[in-house]
């Protein structure tokens, strides 16, 4: 039975893939759109998107570019107006999104926001345990426990209308890596947890917003992968920033030391792609006085998630706790809205490259 289900959804996925790739430009530099002679596959006729912040607005826009019929919702009326001005359907509450969507994607700041959107007074589960959408995808960065609880809750619901072989809805946790620039360019990486057949069926959606997808296993594993990824990213940034600051104090310019790092064993994303020293690399937050990018506030939040998860499973994580304290202090010192690479300047007292 399981093999038949996978084959059934793979068949849908194959149709969706060819459908998504037969594209022509849509409006403002869109990459793909559907053929005017074809109809959206039944499982993806309408997509609801909730959360139109720096990441979500760009992800939703790429779905629109790909030709999906998208309806959006956000508590920020200005964010909604940007889409309504383009002729995109908007709704005021998550429950209204649930009434018109086959698939719903959420991109929200924290676990509490996700819980509110799903189970709040006007949430997706407003009508009890009967849902129209067969697939719910949460791309927020939240703790694995919340992802697993919501997945279990969704699995106990029923569909208003049977979708293929499905009589019950399913949830995927699918946080992303790549930041705002990758969200804009449609080159995000999705880390996905949940039923594998649902992951395979949803791949066309993911590949309309990103270029890589990694199946991480059961419910909550996507969220776990994202927490671990951001933990490693924070520790890497701290290590590179500390080393570059030390090098400056020893008389080596940051640009010279960066060349050394990037051609030897110290090379990392923090040195060759997202260098924290102003003046070393163009097009990164450090070149814009740490404006834009991934804020220190969000990094502190993710490190809190990592620290809590480490405590719950009893894993020794000394670097986690030190990184958590550094970014907490950074936020308390007034730098919460600056990109997390500002730790070079404000914590390690590094100097700009002249």
Automatic annotation (TrEMBL):
Primary location group: mitochondrion
Enzyme class, broadest EC rank: oxidoreductase
Pathway: Amino-acid degradation; L-valine degradation
Catalysed reactions, as listed in the record: 3-hydroxy-2-methylpropanoate + NAD(+) = 2-methyl-3-oxopropanoate + NADH + H(+)
Record's keyword annotation contains Methyltransferase: no
3-hydroxyisobutyrate dehydrogenase-like NAD-binding domain segment(s): 220-346
Any single GO CC term annotated in Swiss-Prot or TrEMBL for this entry: mitochondrion
Highest taxon above the source species: Eukaryota
Keywords: Branched-chain amino acid catabolism, Mitochondrion, NAD, Oxidoreductase, Transit peptide
Protein's cellular compartments: Mitochondrion
UniProt domain 6-phosphogluconate dehydrogenase NADP-binding: residue ranges: 47-217
UniProt entry tagged with the keyword Transit peptide: yes
InterPro entries assigned: 3-OH-isobutyrate_DH-rel_CS, 6-PGluconate_DH-like_C_sf, 6PGD_dom2, 6PGDH_NADP-bd, HIBADH, HIBADH-like_NADP-bd, NAD(P)-bd_dom_sf
PANTHER family from the UniProt entry: 3-HYDROXYISOBUTYRATE DEHYDROGENASE, MITOCHONDRIAL, 3-HYDROXYISOBUTYRATE DEHYDROGENASE-RELATED
Protein name: 3-hydroxyisobutyrate dehydrogenase
Source species taxonomy: Eukaryota, Viridiplantae, Streptophyta, Embryophyta, Tracheophyta
């Amino acid at each position: 039975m399981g093999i038949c289900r996978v084959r059934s959804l793979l068949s849908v996925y194959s149709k969706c893939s060819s459908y998504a790739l037969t594209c022509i430009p849509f409006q403002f530099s869109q990459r793909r759109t559907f053929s005017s002679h074809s109809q959206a596959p039944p499982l993806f006729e309408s997509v609801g998107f909730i959360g139109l912040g720096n990441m979500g607005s760009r992800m939703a826009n790429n779905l629109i570019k790909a030709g999906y019929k998208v309806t959006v919702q956000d508590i920020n009326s200005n964010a909604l107006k940007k889409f309504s001005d383009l002729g995109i359907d908007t709704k005021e509450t998550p429950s209204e999104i649930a009434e018109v969507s086959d698939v719903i994607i959420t991109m929200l700041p924290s676990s509490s926001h996700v819980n509110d959107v799903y189970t709040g007074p006007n949430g997706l589960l407003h009508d009890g345990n009967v849902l129209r959408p067969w697939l719910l995808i949460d791309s927020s960065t939240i703790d694995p426990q919340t992802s697993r609880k919501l997945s279990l809750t969704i699995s106990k619901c029923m569909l208003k209308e049977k979708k293929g072989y499905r009589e019950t809805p399913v949830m995927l946790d699918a946080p992303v890596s790549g930041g705002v620039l990758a969200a804009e360019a449609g080159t995000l990486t999705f880390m996905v947890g949940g039923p594998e057949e649902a992951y395979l069926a949803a791949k066309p959606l993911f590949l309309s917003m990103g270029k890589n997808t990694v199946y991480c296993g059961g419910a909550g594993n996507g969220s776990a992968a994202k927490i671990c990824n951001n933990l490693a990213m924070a520790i890497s940034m701290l290590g590179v920033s500390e080393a570059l600051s030390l090098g400056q104090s020893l008389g080596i310019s940051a640009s010279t030391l960066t060349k050394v790092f990037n051609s030897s064993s110290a090379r990392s994303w923090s040195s060759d792609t997202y260098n924290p020293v102003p003046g070393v690399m163009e097009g990164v937050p450090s070149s814009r006085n740490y404006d834009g990018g991934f804020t220190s506030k969000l990094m502190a939040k993710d490190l809190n998630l990592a620290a809590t998860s480490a405590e719950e499973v009893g894993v020794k994580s000394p670097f986690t706790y030190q990184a958590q304290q550094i970014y907490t202090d950074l936020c308390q010192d007034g730098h919460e809205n600056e990109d997390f690479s500002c730790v070079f300047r404000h914590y390690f007292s590094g100097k700009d490259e002249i």
